[in-house]
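Think of the structure tokens as a kind of shorthand, similar to the way a musician reads notation: each symbol stands for something richer, in this case the local conformation of the backbone. In the example below we present two proteins back to back. Begin with the first one, reading the sequence and then the tokens, and try to describe in your own words what changes along the chain.
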Amino acid sequence: MVENLGEEGFMEELCNGFRLLMDEQKGVITFESLKRNLSVLGLKGMSDEEVREMMREGDVDKDGCLNQMEFCVLMFRLSPGLMDGSMRWLQQALGQKSSCF
């Protein structure tokens, strides 16, 4: 997917995915907003407990929801193939040289 979209296009798609799933009033992905959008993800049959587990897996700050950074990190963790080029993409996104890492 990254090869087709390029790094910027891929990051934009992740941001679009976050906005699609988030609760617009709260600006984060909540259990309710994720549950409401399961069919969009092709996960319509997930139980409430499976949705809660997915939320817990990505909820680094333990506030019960996913902010944009937590969502992006979760998507990378759930897609092992994305990890191959992730350092290079991160460096390009941050505009820093590889010697900084």
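Once you have a description of the first chain, move to the second and do the same.
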Amino acid sequence: MSDSNKNQALDNIKERFALEVLDNYVKKALEKIWRNHKSALKKEYSKKNISLEEKLRNVLPRMLRYQWEDAVRFWNSKKGETQAEVQRLRDQMAQMQVSTVEQIAQLKVEVASREAEMFQQPQNPPS
């Protein structure tokens, strides 16, 4: 989202609402919402097995034609495909990190449980 679009959106928001947060916070939130929106559109519409020309003709009702055409052309470009692959790999790495953290937490619980068992067992006095 360009800075001018963010500033225009921020101005529109300020006209309607009394904000008690910093402008940068609102701009970051707008960026995140915009990225999520584009991602949802791509997931829903770009993977359909139809030609590029047909995708370009099927403009969504809530989008301007030039915005839709720009998005579809980018999704079908080499740069767009590369960016999607990079994002897929980032998502995969994040999932692996979450899984690793969960496994470490599980191991810590098991170790603590075994330590507790060791200390609760009666000690046999030496003969």
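Compare your description with these statements about the second chain. The chain has a mean pLDDT of 83.
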